Amino acid sequence: MPSAPIIVKKKAAHTGHHGGAWKVAYADFVTAMMALFIVLWLLNSNKPVQEAVGGYFRDPSGTGKKMGTTQVGAGEVIPVKKENMADLKELLQKRIESIIDLEKLRKNIEMTITAEGLRIELLESDKGTFFDLGSANLKPSGQEILALLATQLGQVPNHLSIEGHTDAKPYGRKGNYSNWELSADRANAARRLMQQSGLRTDQVAQVRGFADQRLRFPKEPLEATNRRVSIIVQYLAGEGPSDTPESKEGENLNKNKNEETHEAQPEAKIPASKN
Question: In 10 A of CB 2, how many CB atoms?
Answer without folding.
Answer: 4
